What does this fold into?
Amino acid sequence: QAQLVESGGGLVQPGGSLRLSCTASGFSVTDYAVGWFRQAPGKEREGISCVSKDGANVNYAASVKGRFTVSSDTAEKTVYLQMSGLKPEDTGTYYCAATGPGFGPIVHTMCMMDPQGPYDHWGQGTQVTVSA
It folds into this structure.
């Protein structure tokens, strides 16, 4: 069964860095468009970054632009979210999501930060806590 797995979360002090990884079992996550999302307690899930299948389209939410970088490693079949300059308001559960074979190829060329977008697969989330 196809499944996404996020890793790399943890507790970090303000100003620190973390790198989240998104891999898949049952398929290669780099074959599809990937979005990164986060959800803080009591808040709705929000899109923070996305990357198209070929890496040509990348986007960031205003709240993370300049601090977070998304990248894909096709050899490792992994999508990364490098986070630096972390702030307490970045605390939350971070999820990656991938479009899947159920969609036409054009979907995989897109970059979508809408949690309601055409994402077939979601990971279980990894916790990021930014606190002194």
